[in-house]
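[Q] Does anyone have a clean structure-token version of this?
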Amino acid sequence: MGLEWEQVIVHSVDPGALGQWWAEALGWVVVYSSEDEFEIRPAPDRMPGLDFVRIDEVKQAKSRLHLDFRPEDQDAEVARLIAHGAKRVDIGQGEQSSWVVLADPEGNEFCILGQRSQ
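[A] Here you go.
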């Protein structure tokens, strides 16, 4: 029996707004939208995707799961995402310099990694 990874569920107070923010940040497409759910994927038939699902309470603590992204140019990508509405956050990462921790508009943390070590 095999498993196919279909999506990551992201609880959100405003799934449409947060899902649209991520769609624009990643350059992904919207594959489903309703009042309580907003799903995006890299392409309509490509998985895994991100599925934003309504939840009434706001995020209260550090996320137990977060996404890591490795761009070609870390500094440029961090600047682009901050201009798009992300914020730098401190989750106890200290003075390391190989990744930058950001948060989306609802406070969900994600990392922008530096160059891969050879």
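[Q] Thanks! Anything notable?
[A] The mean pLDDT is 92.
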